[in-house]
Amino acid sequence: MREEALNVLMNMEKTGRLSHLVMGEALMRLQFAPKNERAFFTMLCEGVTEQRIYLDYVLDAFSKTKMKKCKPLIRNLLRLSAYQILFMNVRDAAACSEAVNLAKKRGFRSLSGFVNGVLRTLTREKEHLPLPDRKKDPGKYLSVRYSMPLWLVELLTEQYGEEDTETMLASFLTARPTTIRAYLSKTEPRNLRKSLEESGVTVEEGRYFPYAFRISGYNYLNKIPAFRQGLFVIQDESSMFPVEVSGIRAGDRVLDLCAAPGGKTFHAADRTGENGLVIARDLTEYKTELLQENNDRMKYPQVKIEQWDATEFDTSLEASMDVVLADLPCSGLGIMGRKNDIKYHLTREQLDELVDLQRKILSLAWKYVKPGGTLIFSTCTLNRRENVENVRWIEENTPLRRVSVEACLPEELRGRTGEEGYLQLLPGIDGCDGFFVAKFTRV
Fold first, then answer.
1. Please, are residues 306 and 317 in contact by the beta-carbon 8 Å criterion?
2. Tens digits of per-residue pLDDT, 2-34?
3. Using CA atoms, how far apart are residues 294 and 227, in angstroms rounded to an integer?
4. What is the CATH number of the domain that holds 186?
5. Is residue 292 within 8 Å of 340, Cβ to Cβ?
6. Could you tell me if residue 132 is inside a domain?
7. Tally of structural domains, the chain
8. Tell me: the pLDDT tens digits for 177-214?
């Protein structure tokens, strides 16, 4: 499995593709491998990706050739082996010897001694690993300690301060629970919990909503009868807030502008009932097929799935929607704990481009809201330019009026919205992903 993991890391570096896509293809090839071997492979790929900056910093301290100067295969082999030595329950000798064997097997016999020397030094010194001096350069310390690009550390520190930033960075490196939402139109939470436990699933209460649970101890979702029956969906509690604060009622007409994979779509459908309508749109055929695949399991007749570019106006829906869900494309800084290579693919320029795209969509989205109707603007990012500044932009450039979400929040979050009326959830602080939600009404 070490060589399979090495192949994935090489593929990601060479092509720039996201880790979950490359890993997904590999796991399909390995679908008949023993469960423990698949778990080892997954841990290696995800762990090396998550800790890449830290691993390179440590390896650079013990290598005469810096990681960025190494051959790509040797660089990734050293990262792979260092992760085993520092973070996994693997014998140091096994990690070293397997790395040497892989170097030889892949045509780098002449560098096998170099690989062995670096890793042997690392095993001797692993109780005394270097870190940047926090007092002299706190930004670089946080960047290396939590394996986060320096520019993102600086962005978050500027917006949230050093203490909250460190809390969020630390949370990205912790295991993320699998959170589910029960479909209340199909089951009661207590019945769902009983069904899951009878299937051998460990179930814990969610933090904010009575219809949310955290589950563990299962192998494949499709082996759980309640999942096949469409009684629940995988969804972080943070992304349940848009529908929770929207005020969607039975019979409402709802438009979900950027809907895939459908968590909010089906949450809305749970509220509208069969007499309502939920139009779920997304840009590509792949995403609409994903929505359709999920609805084939959920079986909501009130959900209508369409391929549509949200930057193009549809005159047929003008001023006709009770609720518009505008959960827009964003930088995803709030979910870096789940998608651990987002941080390596972002640039400051892309953040600016995303804001432009968001405003292009928002300039049309409000037109679908009927007088007295509601627009929910949400993202899964922490970047205030994509969130708070867009709230101001909406107020200045549309006839929408901001409405506080305070009265719709669980007791634990009351008092968080202040005069602004929007909610920003922070990873590591609020027990869920980072998420932003604001509510508007059309006068």
1. no
2. 888 898 898 888 888 888 788 888 887 877 777
3. 11
4. 3.30.70.1170
5. no
6. no
7. 4
8. 899 999 999 999 999 999 999 999 999 999 999 999 99
